User: Which sequence fits this backbone?
């Protein structure tokens, strides 16, 4: 991948708490982030923090911050509020937020859904980034908008529609 093709309007910070993770290439994550930011016409410089962890750690976060005592595949925590954007100079990097992935849950879902692990992880990364950018799926309308964006962004990476059911062979 040509690094000149990636906009330099963001920085990705990676941390891994689990040695079992088949970590994605940073170039691929940068390309996905560039595609997401371009699709939603995000024009501010930003920092995106990514943590690769396990079910135990994400379960604690999910219980603490969402009141759900179970692991989940991905959590997103926004690092800014809209009022903050109004006062922060355009030359400053915006702490867009954190995206946290749980290996066991993602691996199990990919197997259950008959999807390649990497495709599922990339979908969840797009999903998490869209949450950081203010998209949600609390209503049917919001969900339809968010899902359509995910499908379009993933198609630029030649990843099939993640919402289509894949039959087992």
Assistant:
């Amino acid at each position: 991948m040509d690094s000149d093709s990636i906009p330099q309007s963001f920085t990705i910070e990676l941390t891994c708490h689990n040695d079992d993770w088949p970590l994605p290439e940073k170039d691929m994550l940068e390309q996905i982030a560039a595609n997401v930011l371009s699709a939603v016409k995000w024009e501010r410089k930003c920092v995106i923090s990514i943590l690769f962890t396990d079910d135990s750690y994400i379960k604690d976060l999910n219980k603490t911050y969402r009141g759900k005592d179970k692991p989940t595949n991905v959590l997103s925590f926004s690092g800014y509020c809209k009022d903050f954007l109004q006062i922060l100079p355009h030359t400053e990097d915006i702490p867009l937020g954190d995206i946290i992935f749980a290996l066991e849950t993602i691996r199990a879902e990919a197997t259950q859904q008959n999807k390649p692990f990497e495709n599922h992880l990339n979908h969840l990364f797009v999903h998490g980034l869209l949450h950081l950018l203010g998209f949600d799926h609390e209503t049917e309308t919001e969900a339809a908008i968010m899902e359509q964006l995910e499908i379009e962004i993933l198609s630029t990476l030649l990843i099939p529609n993640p919402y289509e059911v894949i039959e087992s062979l």
Summary: DSSP finds six helices and four strands in the chain.
